[in-house]
C-alpha cells in the first residue's frame, strides 16, 4: 500500500541540476565581448559582427571603476574570460580576469584589497528592474545558457563606463 505513495513522492522530487551547455562549434563562438555600463548592455561579437545582445544588471554601485573589495562596483577596462563555473550559485558563470596587474598595483598603493570573483552570471528574471550584484554582470538564466555556450575561456571583454 505504501509503494504507490512512494512512487508518487519520488516522481515529484526535483530533478538533479541540468548539465551546463556545451561550447558552440568554433565558427559560432564569440571572439570578444563589449559591456556598456551606462546602457546596461552586453554585446557578443564574432569578428565585427554582433551575434547577441543582452540587457544586464550590474553592481549595487555601478558608477565608476571598481577600486576595492566590497565597493559593489563593476570594473571598467580590458579583461579576459578566464574561468567557467557550471555549478555557480547563480546558475552558470564566466569569470572575468579582474583584478588586472594595474588594479592590484592601485589597490596595493591605496592599502586595500582589490577584490575579485567578478563574473558574468545568471539570475532570476525578477531582478531585471534594478542593479543587484556585488560587482558582477548579470543576465537571466536562459540568457546565461546561451552566453555560456558562445563564450570560451580567453575571450577578451571590454567594459565601458
UniProtKB/TrEMBL annotation:
Q: Which residues form the L,D-TPase catalytic domain?
A: 31-160
Instruction: State the Gene3D superfamilies in the record.
Output: L,D-transpeptidase catalytic domain-like (2.40.440.10)
Cite the active-site annotation: 121, 136
**Alphabetical UniProt keywords:** Cell shape, Cell wall biogenesis/degradation, Peptidoglycan synthesis, Signal, Transferase
In which pathway does this enzyme or protein participate? Answer: Cell wall biogenesis; peptidoglycan biosynthesis
Keyword tRNA processing tagged? no
Q: Name one GO biological process term.
A: regulation of cell shape
**Gene Ontology molecular function, alphabetical:** carboxypeptidase activity; transferase activity
Which parts of this chain are annotated as the region Disordered?
A: 60-85
Looking up SUPFAM superfamilies in the UniProt record yields: L,D-transpeptidase catalytic domain-like
Basic and acidic residues bias spans = 60-76
Q: Which domain of life is it from?
A: Bacteria
Show which residues constitute the signal peptide.
1-19
User: Known PROSITE patterns for this protein?
Assistant: LD_TPASE
Family to which this protein belongs: Belongs to the YkuD family.
Name of the featured protein:
ErfK/YbiS/YcfS/YnhG family protein
Tell me what organism the protein belongs to. Answer: Dokdonella koreensis DS-123
Amino acid at each position: 500500500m505504501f509503494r504507490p505513495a512512494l512512487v508518487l513522492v519520488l516522481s515529484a522530487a526535483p530533478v538533479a541540476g541540468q548539465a551546463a551547455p556545451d561550447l558552440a562549434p568554433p565558427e559560432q563562438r564569440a571572439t570578444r565581448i563589449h559591456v556598456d555600463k551606462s546602457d546596461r548592455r552586453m554585446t557578443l561579437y564574432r569578428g565585427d559582427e554582433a551575434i547577441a545582445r543582452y540587457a544586464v544588471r550590474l553592481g549595487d554601485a555601478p558608477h565608476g571603476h571598481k577600486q576595492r573589495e566590497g565597493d559593489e562596483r563593476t570594473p571598467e577596462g580590458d579583461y579576459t574570460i578566464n574561468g567557467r563555473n557550471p555549478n555557480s550559485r547563480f546558475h552558470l558563470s564566466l569569470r572575468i580576469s579582474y583584478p588586472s596587474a594595474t588594479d592590484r598595483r592601485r589597490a596595493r598603493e591605496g592599502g586595500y584589497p582589490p577584490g575579485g570573483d567578478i563574473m558574468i552570471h545568471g539570475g532570476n528574471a525578477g531582478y531585471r528592474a534594478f542593479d543587484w550584484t556585488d560587482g558582477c554582470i548579470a543576465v537571466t538564466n536562459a540568457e546565461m545558457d546561451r552566453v555560456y555556450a558562445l563564450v570560451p575561456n580567453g575571450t577578451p571583454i571590454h567594459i565601458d563606463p
